[in-house]
Amino acid sequence: MNALFQGAIKFYEEDYNNEKDFFEGLQENKPHTLFITCVDSRIDPNRLTRSKPGELFVIRNIGNIIPPFSEIETQEHFLAITSAIEYSIKKLKVKNIIICGHSNCGACTCVYKPEMLEEMPYVKKWLEFLKPTIESVAAMGETSEHKKIWLTELQNIKQQLVNLLTYPFVESKFNRGELHIYGWFYNIQSGQILNYNFIKNDFKPIAGDSVMV
């Protein structure tokens, strides 16, 4: 904890004072992108995108899950996520949404190792949202546990993109071309980020000549 306190001191004495004009200019919340990702401590949205404070509006939860809109009407305890998405679209008017999953995801591992969830009933309940993802991976017929987990990590991103578009206020702006939506997969080991192509239905590394579709 001492390192965190020292970090807070250095932030004020060095970072803030060295860029005082920039930080004083952050009086309004005007992000251009909603970044939805996992709570995993190894994921740093600003570092991954080399963005500055004020550019990203971030939502984090276990497994970067977006409950389908139909669930919201009967399950009020999902409102924290729904309200944040609604606020970013209707109030902040973000132009982009990125759903970012990652390798070695604990959520995507736990669903195949139920013993890991025995003492975590709330996590177990939350991960029920991964059922459609698990079913789609099962249909692929893969037997290797390692590859099933990897496929689940990728398929989960695609499923959350589907879930996101069940929100009427997201779908309408997306269909009008007023909102751009992306699915990213961050490989922690290699540092590489893959982008999902809606048309080709595959993930490709983000490179200098990448075309965002």
Automatic annotation (TrEMBL):
InterPro entries associated with the record: Carbonic_anhydrase, Carbonic_anhydrase_sf
Keywords of the record: Lyase, Metal-binding, Zinc
Cofactor(s) essential for the protein: Zn(2+)
Enzyme class: lyase
Keyword NADP applies: no
Transmembrane segments: none
Metal-binding in keyword set: yes
Catalytic activity: hydrogencarbonate + H(+) = CO2 + H2O
Pfam families: Pro_CA
Cofactor note text: Binds 1 zinc ion per subunit.
EC number: 4.2.1.1
Signal peptide per UniProt: none
Positions contributing to Zn(2+) binding: C38, D40, H102, C105
Molecular function terms from GO: carbonate dehydratase activity; zinc ion binding
Family (UniProt): Belongs to the beta-class carbonic anhydrase family.
PANTHER family tied to this protein: CARBONIC ANHYDRASE
Protein name as annotated: carbonic anhydrase
Organism per entry: Helicobacter saguini
